[in-house]
Sequence to fold (258 residues):
Amino acid sequence: MKPGWLPDWTDPEAYPDPKKTSLQQWAWEFLRRNPEYQRDYKKSCTMPCYAEIEANQSVPGGLEGFFCNPPALPGELKIDYLDRVGTGKINDYEASVAEKYGITSLMIDPADPDGIFMTGLKTQYLPCLFVSETEDLQATIGLKPDSVEEVVFKINLSWKVEPQLQYIKERLNKIEQYLKKQGKISSGKRNSTKLYQEYLRVLDAEASGASVREMSTTLVPDKPYSDPGDDDQTIKNYLKAAKKLRDYNYLYIAIGVK
Fold:
């Protein structure tokens, strides 16, 4: 279902100004459009909070609805849980889900355009890129590049780190030059924020039920002798890039690498 707070995607004035918007704000604009985040926020509003069990040691249903490590038994109360496990970690639903999205404290209402400034994002928890140049190793460590533009490396912390980092830097420079020659990445300096407004608009257009043709007619500037099929492909490319930023790459925006 389309959120009621989404702006009119046909009106560029309803969106953040690319020249004035901070990277942190752009990151939030994408995250708050994530349907999974919206569902998690809605659910968090109905779940018990940790303060309840801090106050009276128990809540109806015991620790159900809380994230416990080690896991709690069905119907187990906090006092019984701690007696059984000794030292355990208890997080309420909201705190656990906020951590999942890299939010520093509590979940933020996606309807609040300025909500991120109340808490911020945990950019220090960005996924580490382990390095490996073979598919077998990438499968072993459980982390694969999402596209040709991404490289996965593996670092051995029992060895000296600096020589490994120097090797990685040299390899990355060579890979970058090779991909530029192959035309697989741009050789010019990217200015991603220039397209962020368009990315938000195509996400909102899709959520509003607009077709790709409607989007391209509105968002792609008229060009003499342009092929409508090319314009539609531009919109499809926008949607693909926008969804990656919305679903997991928003944190990279906040540190300025996207």
